[in-house]
């Protein structure tokens, strides 16, 4: 634990927010901890309390309270992250583990993303594929570079079989089949009063559009609740960003709770306000061994939706070969 420090603000740091300035100097201190230090007056500017958005001036003196050693924080964080990761494990062998990723937890880091699966992995472990932050379900992790290579080939060669379950706002038409087309990055518009206007999304585009990629999805409506909602099983034949989310929107029934791919139809009452998309199962071939097949249990928000609409997990008996 360090002692109390008094740091002067240099000329080149003038105008910076206090919380961001502090975090840049002491990145091992968690954001929540910084807020608490500010709230309790342990971080002060020229002897006075200050809020996180206070703009610093050159020459001001900032009181830095006693802080834990960075190496101790790193070790404690690593231990906590690994414990949390292994609480998610639903399958393990000498080469691979499969976890049931909860909705809301990112797979990899990015802007303003400090907690993610990749950051929890022990040394040498590697992600084999990805899931959106808001998608729950099966995520495969390799324990070595060699395991990542052979498992990754199943995704690259498209021999990995991924089944997703979703609850849609409305009923897709037609009720089953294949949806295919080109997609590329675009921006949200404000047709449905979406507060995320301007954020990047995927859009259906014509063949030949710059950076467009072809996407294919097999799907079947397993059950419906009138015209309000449907239980849909999906098998992506390609692995494009937001592929299933865009394809359900194109079919006229976007996934319930999706903040980016929407409709002007009101969301049925009683649903949790989160994305209703779950990576239900994953099957990959193994040389000289039976296929590896892993199934993730339904998350709480999906179970609630099934109960609300009277859907049953046992109803899903899709003949995917027939849809091909």
Protein model, in words:
This protein is α+β, with helices and mostly antiparallel strands. It has three domains: 5-68, RNA-binding S4 domain (Structural Genomics Hypothetical 15.5 Kd Protein In mrcA-pckA Intergenic Region, Chain A); 71-156, Pseudouridine synthase (2-Layer Sandwich), CATH 3.30.2350.10; 161-323, Pseudouridine synthase, CATH 3.30.2350. The chain contains eight helices and 15 strands. It has helices at residues 18-25, 31-39, 70-87, 117-120, 145-156, 243-250, 300-309, 320-323; strands at residues 5-8, 44-45, 48-49, 61-64, 89-92, 96-101, 126-127, 136-142, 161-169, 176-187, 200-205, 213-225, 229-236, 277-286, 289-295. Strands 5, 6, 7, 8, 9, 10, 11, 12, 13, 14 and 15 form an eleven-stranded mixed beta sheet that branches. A hairpin with a 3-residue loop joins strand 5 and strand 6 (96-101). The longest helix has 18 residues, at 70-87. The chain is globular. The N and C termini lie far apart (62 Å). Residues 192-198 have low confidence and may be disordered. Belongs to the pseudouridine synthase RluA family. It comes from Algimonas arctica. This is Pseudouridine synthase. Keywords: Isomerase, RNA-binding. One of its GO terms (biological process) is enzyme-directed rRNA pseudouridine synthesis.
Main beta sheet, described?
11 strands, mixed
* Domains (count): 3
- Can you give the helix content as a percent range? 10-25%
Q: What CATH architecture of the largest domain would you give?
A: 2-Layer Sandwich
The number of strands is 15
CATH homologous superfamily annotation of the largest domain: Pseudouridine synthase
User: Shape from CA axes?
Assistant: globular
Oligomer: single chain
Element order: H for helix, E for strand: EHHEEEHEEHEEHEEEEEHEEHH
GO molecular function: RNA binding; rRNA pseudouridine synthase activity
GO biological process, one term: enzyme-directed rRNA pseudouridine synthesis
Domain RNA-binding S4: 16-77
Keywords: Isomerase, RNA-binding
